[in-house]
Amino acid sequence: MPELEKTYTPAEVEARWYQRWLDDKCFEADPSRVSEKRPAYSIVIPPPNVTGVLHMGHVLNNTIQDILSRRARMQGKEVLWLPGTDHAGIATQNVVEKTLKKQGVIKHRDDLGREKLVEKIWEWKDKHGDIIIDQLKKLGASCDWSRQRFTFDDDYNACVMRVFVDLYKKGLIYRGRRMVNWCPSSLTALSDEEVIPTPQKGFMYHFKVQVVEEPDTWLEIATTRPETIPGDTAVAVNPKDERYAHLIGKHIKRPLPLENQAPIPIVGDDHVDFEFGTGVLKVTPAHDKADFEIGQRHNLEIIDVLHPNAILNELAGKDLAGLERFEGRKKAVELLTELGVMVKEEPHQNNVGYSERAGVPIEPRLSEQWFLKYPSIKESQDVVAKGEMKFYPDRWAKVYDHWLTGIQDWCISRQVWWGHRIPVWYRGEETYCGTSAPEGEGWTQDPDVLDTWFSSWLWPFATMGWTGDKEKDSANPTLKAFYPTTDLVTGPDIIFFWVARMIMAGFEWMSELPFKNVYYTGIIRDKQGRKMSKSLGNSPDPLDLITKYSADALRFGIMRSAPLGQDIRYDEQNVELGRNFCTKLWNAARFRQMQSSTGFQPVSPDGRVENSSYITEAEISPTLLSSDDKWILLRLNTAIAEVSAALEEYRFSDATATLYRFFWSEYCDWYIEASKAVLQGSDEKRKANTLAVIDFVLSHTLRLFHPFLPFITEELWHGMGFNADLPENQGGKSIMFAPWPKPLDADELAHFGILPEDEATANQKYETVNLGRGLKSTFNINKKVRFVLKPNQELPGHEIEVIRILLNAEPLDVDASFAPTKGTPSALTPLGTVFLPLDGLIDVEAERARVGKDLAKAESELEKVTAKLADENFTSKVPQKVLDEHQQRLTDWQEKSAKLKEMLAALSA
RNA sequence: GCACGGAUAGCUCAGUGGUAGAGCGGCUCGCUUACACCGAGUUGGUCGGGGGUUCGAAUCCCUCUCCGUGUACCA
Predict the structure, then answer these.
(1) Distance (Å) from CA A768 to C1' B74?
(2) What ipTM does the predicted assembly reach?
(3) pTM for the full model?
(4) Strand B contacted by A566 CB (< 7 A)
(5) Which domains does chain A have, with CATH numbers?
(6) Cα–Cα distance list, A165 to A134, A162, A369, A461, A471 (Å)
(7) Is the model's pLDDT at A67 over the cut of 90?
């Protein structure tokens, strides 16, 4: 067996193993291996932005996917974790345009033109596109990189085109002049989902206007956007509003622009809420969705006073033209004030839609866009409602359902160049839609590209080589084996953008749901609970953390703090804790290794002999098992069961907590320490047997840990020689293919002679040790000292030795007739009374005080239980089980109290 | 406005009717031959407030407060 290094060096180990896994093609999925005995497990990565860099959200998300994938491999499944990146149309084009502008290459995208700019973006993509992929590799992601996809690959592009044409032919895609969300920064339309309503502090401006037909009548109007007055083409009042109804049909004089104070009509419209503002609404059909609708109903003129970049244009009048919209607002107020028509301005809070990407207020804008009536809504809604597809946590199902219920058509066209170009061509009055350009001269293609999500929604099958040709697709082994996928792991922030749409696409083109389970991660926040963001600078670079602590540590730290469905408070301490845990694991393995060199009986590293099957139990001799051995085997059983159950239910933090507790608190703190009684002794047979138990536990623990800590477990798996003698594909080559641990079943437990009560036996011993240690600490003893145990019943010598070692006692005398001198500190334990004889060094008063405190506690508990049991109201109504418990409690406290009283009496004598 | 989630020890969280828990931190000891990235001990809580149901409530019901998320055409 190769000797383990003294210190663990994660950087070297992680790089080495990742390369080895790649070289050995460990992550590559082969559909031909899928069979009834070897089911498929598949998961598609939420494709990160191709120009992005790894952030903590990616770490969380991809660690989870990796855990699921690795566990599935260990369960003997054929695993496909399909990776790739997203072209992220608007975001990527923005980044490249900005860079080019900074470099002084261009002032505007038109300086380059469409083709040249797209070329530049491709160059950018080729240069930066693999950064995030490399970062995922550093994290240990076990994706099948041979299948890496990009949403703008030729094959993928073909899928997008095919889908567009299909929907167009089905009549679900149409072009129309509508009010859309316009981003004045990116100069494109956005979908409703890309607009974030943001509460905004502003002002409500009240101004008055003169009724043309009744010059003495003035109406007061309240608005938040006075700069759009030049675009007003009516004012509206509610026809039921008695204050104004008689004015309907008359006109008011629009105050701006000054050079064109045109009369505009007063219309009656139910939309107007007469409780709000003044009950008089200025109607600007070009710049407000609701106003646009009013305009439609009353056939109003539409005056667009803004350039696409939200600078006021000539129609706004000479005073406002050329001003940015917020400057224009100030100027408009000034003008109204000069006119003497400003009444007042009041602070006002309203919701303003912000562009999700550009972070600027969007403008409702009338423009020609492409829209999609969503397909397969019914199936998509039902599949989740009926629980055929499961959401974790399931409350997202309601959110999903609600969105689908009130769903609006999707604006899918974008006025940028980086993206899938709309496959529609025009020639005069003719329109052609097809996957390639039409025959003949004079056709021009629609300049718009498609929303990035219009490609992402095909991800689960477009990445698997879908062609839309039924025959071809049914002969496609990848699709056949791995679609529908098993799990999807993503953030709830893209439940509408992506998840819901993928479900629709799955039904529409594959006639089947795209995944069976969706796990929604929480959002990573900083210690103060704020979202992580670049501008706050509170987002650590995962790569720095990996350098500092290792990828395993980062993974473990993040998973430990990520309860199901809850936001995560990130604290670097958790990563540090992950590193410490790896170190502990490393040292525990080293401890085992150091024992073998001193061992007498030759035992193979895994406690196995040549040609044995994988099961190591055969090497453990049941007759030689100590109570500690039985205890740790039972605790291991519990840990395996708990971790397995937690993973089934996507409770990753519970799984990590169990692993931590089992390995650190149970295995290292108790079992290893107790086993030293044997390992430092002279019974060679027992030593060998203890080592076999240790190997059994370690080999199981490493496997249990592997999905969480892939690197260090692999290193130790080989370092400890646990891989030796295993078939290549079952742990010989890599721990990632070793079988997922199973708890010992009833037969195996019987074989080892392990009974459930064995756990309590060992626990009593450990409790005794705890109490003894407590005595030592109370009296500030930090050296090896003599303890005396006055046992309740006879104890085997081995058990006494274990207690001695755990207590660090020198010696531990067992004396059933021990008569302590007055004032000897003592503790009542499950195994008897433990004394710490200090030969007159102790303070009788102090000991009396200590015992007195214990007694007071016992008395108060006794009182409580007695009172309860004396209460007829209680005893008559309570179930027998509870009554028994209380009865037992009563007896326990009575006994304890009696003994404490005795001790106190002895101290006072 | 509506819906959902959350509020338990200094911090992060378990705990869905029967003696309030864990990890981390804090404090006190200790370089005991795997590990100081460690070990031992110990300290922390009228379970957000108020009502109610019950023999018994962190847990069930009502109500309020605060935080978060989603959603809604109020200029």
Answers:
(1) 71
(2) 0.93
(3) 0.90
(4) yes
(5) 34-153+455-521 (3.40.50.620), 188-364 (3.90.740.10), 554-754 (1.10.730.10), 760-842 (no CATH), 845-907 (1.10.287)
(6) 36, 5, 16, 17, 19
(7) yes
